[in-house]
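call fold target=DUF3168 domain-containing protein
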Amino acid sequence: MEDDLYQALLTLGHPVAWLAFNKAVGLPRISLQRISTVTGYSQTGRADVETARVQINVSAETYSEAAALGRAVSELLTELRSGSVIRCRELSRRDGSSETGGDIIRQQMLDISVRYRA
């Protein structure tokens, strides 16, 4: 699931990383982190389908850039049916910002539910 989401988001043309980037990258950029995973069970044991909640942080220099990229991420993932990913659904989207070195980075944080084959 992680690689399928990563590869899909790369098609948007911006840097993408799970958790954090290994080096400084420009803006806009996309980072992902798993918030939780729910494993299904049947009477015979663990099911092969799981649901994860993934937070996707979109960072940009301006609010309009962050909002546009946030919409693009949501549209891309809600239409994604690839590899292990069965279905993605946007649960929520929040605006935010962070200050680093005197610069203000605008963000959108999307919570996405990802149903996938384990």
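return ok
The two ends are 8 Å apart (CA to CA). Residues 34 and 54 are 4 Å apart (CA to CA).
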